[in-house]
Design a protein that fits this description.
Layout: H1 16-19, H2 62-74, E1 81-83, H3 86-97, E2 103-107, H4 112-120, E3 128-132, H5 137-143, E4 148-154, H6 166-176, E5 179-183, H7 188-191, E6 201-204, E7 219-223, H8 226-239, H9 245-255, H10 258-277, E8 282-286, H11 296-302, E9 317-322, H12 326-333, E10 340-341, E11 351-353, H13 365-370, E12 377-381, H14 387-400
Parallel strand pairs: 2-3, 2-4, 4-5, 5-6, 10-11
Antiparallel strand pairs: 1-7, 6-7, 8-9, 9-12, 11-12
Helix pairs in contact: 2-9, 3-8
Length: 416
């Protein structure tokens, strides 16, 4: 079932800021205020042939189901399907909808693990993938084949924050008889609603902003198509990739503060991006909230603030390329103090990542260059610290980078 604005799941002023804090809260006399952990592998049966909702935790679990209900509600969809990791969710999606001989059209700028899965695993199953610039709608249309069954995009993309037009690409998918999956990990349903824009599936690494505290691995798929969800549920049952009860419980607790965190982090990210954009050592800044960003107008239409009419928020992730390339990027990353060098986004702490050698190290160098992942690029996941404190840390560290490191040639693809 394709989502439409007049469907049973049409948006009705669901505000994540209202929904999230009460997830799993007891509503009857004497019930706990927070959700309990059903840390059990199996569940009691009254008799042979009984069919309770939960029977074995590889198939379903009460704590996981609470998280799934909440994630579905955030997108006015049936309960989501939760997985052990974001890549486990993507794997289940691919196994559920693709067969030998099928073709995937994927954005050129997506998470490195997605590229690895599509390039190095799916070909052995007879599934071919083309990577395309999904910011160019005409290029997407021209790359569709008769056997294209899935369009997979990430917007804003990782790590260069390219913004793709979900509504336009959804129309291409619909016309071609293919499904559209949108990796919405950076924005989450609090800041972007892919299903409202015509996508068939929202894809998440809940490890990132949804958990928000760097404590629980997880992934999720959200759709308004019951038959598609049932097929993916069957694949999850067969592969055993469901999320654990404890990680689901930790993720629920993180989800409660998601709208508040992302609102604050987005404002801070915008301030940092503006400061970096005018710094003499920075060659370019990628952040859709900047008015100098070519995708700013599309981001303003596609991203949301809350569902109460506030101005759009553009997320807590930005990236920037230093003049001098790898040497300058390494020197800066190793001199930061408040900002931690890790391979991660979405935490309450501010995190910095060197994408070329970390998250996208397995992506072929040519593809990295094509999508703007230069050796001098650093990705910043903004935490809850004050903007002034993060900027002070960046300014101090930039001042410690040896001057000669800024004199190397900037390794850039697609120069402005």
């Amino acid at each position: 079932m394709r989502p439409t604005l007049d469907s049973p799941f049409a948006r009705n002023n669901v505000d994540p800021a209202v929904l999230c804090p009460g997830i799993g809260q007891g509503k009857h006399d004497g019930e706990p205020l927070t959700v309990s952990i059903a840390q059990s592998t199996t569940f009691y049966r009254e008799g042979v042939g009984s069919n309770p909702q939960h029977q074995y935790s590889r198939v379903s679990n009460p704590t996981v189901a609470t998280l799934e209900d909440a994630l579905g509600q955030l997108e006015l969809a049936p309960p989501a399907l939760c997985f052990s990791t974001g890549l486990a969710a993507e794997t289940a999606l691919f196994l559920a909808v693709l067969r030998a001989g099928d073709h995937v059209l994927c954005g050129r700028s997506v998470y490195g693990g997605t590229v690895r899965l599509l390039r190095e695993v799916l070909p052995d199953l007879g599934i071919d993938t083309t990577f395309v610039d999904t910011t160019n709608v005409d290029a997407v249309r021209e790359a569709v084949r008769p056997n294209t069954k899935l369009l997979f995009i990430e917007t804003p993309s990782n790590p260069v924050l390219e913004v793709s037009d979900i509504r336009a690409i959804a129309e291409i998918a619909r016309y071609s008889g293919a499904l559209l999956a949108v990796d919405n990990t950076f924005q989450t349903a609090a800041l972007q609603q892919p299903l409202d824009l015509g996508a068939d599936i929202s894809v998440y690494s809940t490890t990132k902003f949804i958990d928000g505290h760097s404590v629980a691995l997880g992934g999720a798929l959200v759709s308004r198509d019951p038959a598609l969800l049932e097929r993916i549920r069957f694949v999850r049952k067969c592969t055993g990739a469901i999320q654990t009860p404890f990680n689901a419980w930790a993720t629920i607790n993180g989800l409660k503060t998601l709208p508040l965190r992302l609102s604050s982090q987005s404002k801070t990210a915008a301030a940092i991006a503006s400061w970096l954009d005018g710094h003499p050592t920075i060659a370019r800044v990628h952040y859709p909230g900047l008015h100098t960003d070519g995708a700013h107008a599309l981001a303003e239409r596609q991203h949301t603030g809350t569902h109460t009419g506030l101005e759009p928020c553009h997320g807590a992730v930005l990236s920037f390329e230093l003049r001098g390339g790898l040497g300058a990027a390494r020197a800066l990353a190793e001199r930061l103090d408040l900002c931690s060098l890790v391979e991660h986004v979405g935490s309450v702490q501010t995190l910095v990542t060197h994408s070329a050698t970390m998250t996208h190290a397995d992506v072929p160098a040519e593809q990295r260059r094509d999508c703007g992942i230069a050796d001098g690029l650093l990705r910043l996941s903004v935490g809850l610290e004050p903007a002034g404190a993060i900027i002070a840390d960046l300014e101090r560290a930039l001042g410690l980078v040896p001057a000669e490191d800024f004199h190397e040639e900037v390794s850039a693809c697609n120069p402005a």
